[in-house]
Amino acid sequence: MLISSALGLENVNTMKHLPRVGLLMSFAVALGGCPIWGDSSSSSSYCSGSNCPNPGQQCSSDYDCPTNEYCSGSDGLCHTYPGNTGGGGSASTTTTGSMTTTTGTNTTSSTSTGQAPIYCGNPNDCMPGQTCAPDGTCHSGSCDKAGGCIYGYICDTTMSPPACKAENPAACGADSDCASAGTGYRCVNGICTAPSDQCFDGTQCSSGDVCADGKCTPSCANGSMCPTDYKCSTVNTCTVPAQACTITNDCGSATEVCVAGACVPRSPGNGSCGTGTVWVENGCIPDQHASFVCAIDGSQDACATGSICLHHSCYISCASPNQNACTVLPTFNQCKSVTTTSGAHSVCGSSSNLGSDCNPTEGVGCQAGHICVDGYCK
């Protein structure tokens, strides 16, 4: 399924303590250097004059620590970030030595007694007891204590403890997230989408795309290049991650997010993405939606005279008495039989689309190990 400003590490410190800036300014003199403690009711959360060690003071969340420090869950003490970069999140251990990352977990080590920020794009990127905060890193504590949730998610205070949830109940990051929505539902552009609203073949997609299992997908057939973050599959679709991941921190960068197992560019802010890409879990992926021009299957509907609406798209009919309608067309020069909910129809197609092997919109899939590409199991 983002940050409200660019995710530069130099901005993380400011964002982390933003809710307390006014309070700090108002009471700086009276506090005499003593840090502001969070809302925790823990008896260890106290500070009195010179009895405020720094670093190493007791804490229960990042908000109990000074700006350039984080709260470690392993010892309950504040630690300095590597290079004083600031940020949020902590793992169960800290070590000294060269940086290492354990793929698929929230465990990282750095060249410091502190812990490097753990990057996130959605709540599942963080460990239990942590929150994916607005700055795009994991912070200790529930969302009501950690400054809220990353873009696209809200802090549900009815949960115990409060936790981040997607603003859109139909939001998803992968097809597996849509299992409870119904048979044939897939995650298209970050939304669980019914089969009838998925693509049927490449004519419903942008130029250079094919319809792969109900989603418009860049094609790498005939030597075409894939988007930077994907590689060509054995069936000539750009669906293989250039850098695979389980969670965002596996990508190892503040500028990338893990979406459906691939490291992709992080959205620059507030759900925005570049041309041809869409926002999903604070990353930008190729646009997967189908373009529909008509609605009533088996009729002319909004199509031109001599054409028929099938699966929300217009196709030239080659039914009697127009059996030769396709012969003068440069690409769709084959008269093909297509069966939809409205019956069997003869329309103009090509050797690469309108196959009869499979049909995601009708729930007709392929055997294991194959995918449906423009009506053919490959």
What is the string of SSEs from the N terminus onward?
HHEEEEEEEEEEEEEEEEEEEEEEEE
Q: What is the structural class? A: mainly beta
Q: Approximately how much beta-strand content do the residues carry?
A: 15-25%
Strand order of the largest sheet: 1-2
The number of distinct structural domains comes to 3
How does the major sheet shape up? 2 strands, antiparallel
Whole-number radius of gyration? 26 Å
Any low-confidence stretches, pLDDT <50, length ≥5?
Answer: 1-55, 81-113
Provide a count of the helices: 2
Sum up the overall morphology in one term: elongated
**Average pLDDT over all residues:** 78
Helix content: under 10%
What is the count of β-strands? 24
End-to-end distance: 29 Å
Describe what this molecule looks like in 3D.
With 378 residues, the chain is mostly beta strands. The protein folds into three domains: 1-165, no CATH class; 175-286, no CATH class; 307-377, no CATH class. 5% of the residues lie in helices and 23% in strands.
Identify the notable features of this structure and list them briefly:
378 residues; mainly beta; 3 domains; two-stranded antiparallel ribbon; 2 helices; 24 strands; elongated
Give the SSE map.
Layout: H1 9-16, H2 21-31, E1 69-71, E2 78-80, E3 100-101, E4 108-109, E5 130-132, E6 138-140, E7 153-156, E8 163-166, E9 186-188, E10 191-193, E11 209-212, E12 215-218, E13 230-232, E14 238-241, E15 256-259, E16 262-265, E17 277-280, E18 283-286, E19 307-310, E20 313-316, E21 334-340, E22 343-349, E23 372-373, E24 376-377
Antiparallel strand pairs: 1-2, 3-4, 5-6, 7-8, 9-10, 11-12, 13-14, 15-16, 17-18, 19-20, 21-22, 23-24
